[in-house]
TrEMBL record:
Entry's family note: Belongs to the glycosyl hydrolase 13 family.
InterPro entries hit by this protein: GH, GH13_cat_dom, Glyco_hydro_b, Ig-like_fold, Ig_E-set, ISOA1-3-like_C
CDD domains named in the record: AmyAc_Glg_debranch (cd11326)
Full protein name: Isoamylase 1, chloroplastic isoform X3
Length: 643
């Protein structure tokens, strides 16, 4: 049985009202939304927006959680993997029984376990319409779709067409498939975080469709100007009116549902700065219960204590889950390091991404900022009482270059999007290592692999929470396209054949580095490191160089498990021989050197020929020095000297 609502009232857009009794609109609280059953398939008569309906709650959709309980990992221990559900197993090389679905992800969870992942961040899995941008793409000869899903139709409903069950049982089989994914991830010790989009909806501006919120009460759910125009802080046509009392209660109800009913472990909030802006119809009595003297807030004003963030932060259910803000919006509000946090919110650290990219590619003037990044960005988070784990560190994410493209392209190559290369970010802080594109000399290919290892090593030895983007573990390329929102094809699909072939030596390196991070007590600290634990070095011990021209950063770290660790980055185009800290009765042993070809880039204990490889370093280490090639990084461990 399905249902929908009809709302009676006047259609007067200039007053902010879009009531239309001829339309059947969705219940904002609907648990499942039904229309087409298959991803990318048009409705009757080629309709991209066929009539939708809500599923009436059913008693025959029970799910056996098998005693599932939240893992509740301390956030400092997380290694996050940003994943697109369809893209993860859609490619034929995945050889899954249910490619491109929640069940397909379940079939491949062991890959994440091998990689050392203990938290998946799912790109939008709320109901959206992938045919929203449906149009012929003459460049590729296929059709553009809304592949990423940042355009929500229904917040309580999962994306039905990501399930193998489709619309069977009125969508309740699809709900159970999401529960299956979460239950099976928990069994493998992997938490699941949802990427949610409460900054705008798929209803667009005044020319957009009337689907749900607009037909129910447009003036409440959207941020409107006095004559009914839509504020557009999202860049997508409308702005969800997050701090209105009705809307913020709706958002809290929705988040609670996903935690209590669906067992998700937390949320990443897309363009979260919009959730800190004052609502239209702002009324201090309505918001705070009493008038505030001099309350002249205009619509969209950033609030120091946003009621919605306050409610979430102090909610007995929600304050115990992971809460991650993308702390900016397209209206110019940038709050990295300043997002209202109540001690429980973390942030995607966009400054970490930009600084690490600059330093690793050898840009002058970033050695001091890079050192801050290694320490968990205390310059951003310490003063406000937050900790390193409030920083979500990343080098690459779904928007922007992949890791392989970051070291292969100086410029974006977005022609495949059909927008004459005008879309996407122009400032990528990338470096192609000497030649643009895929077909380059062997020496350039070697340098690119080295740079990829440098980026990944940096991510794993930084305080804070590392986040990896799907496919970066084997070097997935999108051909230099940094805005692949519209491609349901090989550009975005995880290539299992590439991961498994001989060039996946980078995958081995990634697995060993994540394990090293998890084995070390000192690489996921609860608090910022102090001089008792960490010492900075330059080409000589205890003489760090923070000058404008410095491209060398090194430090030693006391670790209760590994003893003492020495880590160094040389991002100069020149090789350098460094002096190591004197430790009488001990000697430094090599573990990682990104300048070495695989498998000697990481000297794991089970590596054939490991002793011979170590012997090749011996005469240097006997003299307490180490030669570092250009664009390389190393990890050394202190061990007792043999007689």
């Amino acid at each position: 049985m399905l249902y929908g609502y009809k709302f009676d009232g006047k259609l007067s857009p200039e007053k902010g009202h879009y009531y239309d009794y001829s339309r059947i609109v969705l219940d904002p609280y609907a648990k499942a939304v039904i229309r087409r059953g298959d991803f990318g398939t048009l409705g009757p008569d080629g309709d991209c927006w066929p009539q939708m309906a809500c599923a009436v709650p059913s008693s025959n959709s029970k799910f056996d959680w098998e005693g599932d309980l939240p893992l509740k990992y301390p956030q400092k221990d997380l290694i996050i993997y940003e994943m697109h559900v369809r893209g993860f197993t859609r490619h034929e090389s995945s050889r899954t029984e249910f490619p491109g679905t929640y069940r397909g992800v379940v079939e491949k969870l062991d890959h994440l376990k091998e990689l050392g992942i203990n938290c998946i961040e799912l790109m939008p899995c709320n109901e959206f319409n992938e045919l929203e941008y449906f149009s012929y793409n003459s460049v590729l000869g296929d059709y553009k779709v809304n592949y990423w899903g940042y355009s929500t139709v229904s917040y309580f409903s999962p994306m039905i067409r990501y399930s193998s069950a489709g619309v069977s049982n009125c969508g309740y089989d699809a709900i159970n498939e999401v529960k299956l994914l979460i239950r099976e991830a928990h069994k493998r010790g992997i938490e699941v975080i949802m990427d949610v989009v409460f900054n705008h909806t798929a209803e667009g501006n005044e020319n957009g469709p009337i689907l749900s919120f607009r037909g129910a009460d447009n003036s409440v759910y959207y941020m409107l100007a006095p004559k009914g125009e839509f504020y557009n802080y999202s860049g997508c046509g409308n702005t969800f009116n997050c701090n209105h009392p009705i809307v913020r209660q709706f958002i809290v109800d929705c988040l609670r549902y996903w935690v209590t009913e669906m067992h998700v472990d937390g949320f990443r909030f897309d363009l979260a700065s919009i959730m800190t802006r004052g609502s239209s119809l702002w009324d201090a009595v309505n918001v705070y219960g009493n008038p505030i003297e001099g309350d002249l807030l205009t619509t969209g004003t950033p609030l120091s204590s946003p009621p919605l963030i306050d409610m979430i932060s102090n909610d007995p259910i929600l304050r115990g889950v992971k809460l991650i803000a993308e702390a900016w919006d397209t209206g110019g509000l940038y709050q990295v390091g300043k997002f209202p946090h109540w001690g429980v919110w973390s942030e995607w650290n966009g400054k970490y991404r930009d600084i690490v990219r600059q330093f690793i590619k050898g840009t002058d003037g970033f050695s001091g900022a890079f050192a801050e990044c290694l320490c968990g960005s205390p310059n951003l988070y310490q003063e406000g009482g937050r900790k390193p784990w409030n920083s979500i560190n990343f080098v690459c994410a779904h928007d922007g270059f992949t890791l392989a493209d970051l070291v292969s392209y100086n410029k974006k190559h977005n022609l495949a999007n059909g927008e004459d290369n005008n879309d996407g970010e122009n400032h990528n802080n990338s470096w192609n290592c000497g030649q643009e594109g895929e077909f380059v000399s062997i020496s350039v290919k070697k340098l690119r692999k080295r740079q990829m290892r440098n980026f990944f090593l940096c991510l794993m030895v930084s305080q804070g929470v590392p986040m990896i983007y799907m496919g970066d573990e084997y070097g997935h390329t999108k051909g230099g396209n940094n805005n692949t929102y519209c491609h349901d094809n090989y550009i975005n699909y995880f290539r299992w054949d590439k991961k498994e072939d001989s060039s996946s030596d980078f995958f081995r390196f990634c697995c060993l580095m994540t394990k090293f991070r998890q084995d070390c007590e000192s690489l996921g600290l609860h608090d910022f490191p102090t001089a008792e634990r960490l010492q900075w070095h330059g080409h000589a011990p205890r003489t760090p160089d923070w000058s404008e021209k410095s491209r060398f950063v090194a430090f030693s770290l006391m670790d209760s498990v590994k003893g003492e660790i020495y880590i160094a980055f040389n991002t100069s185009h020149l090789a350098v021989t460094i002096s190591l800290p004197e430790r009488p009765g001990h000697r430094w042993e090599p573990l990682v050197d990104t300048s070495k070809p695989a498998p000697y880039d990481f000297l794991s204990s089970d590596l054939p020929g490991r002793d011979i490889a170590i012997q090749q370093y011996a005469h240097f280490l006997d003299a307490n020095i180490y030669p570092m090639l250009s664009y390389s990084s190393i990890i050394l461990l202190l061990s007792p000297a043999e007689e």
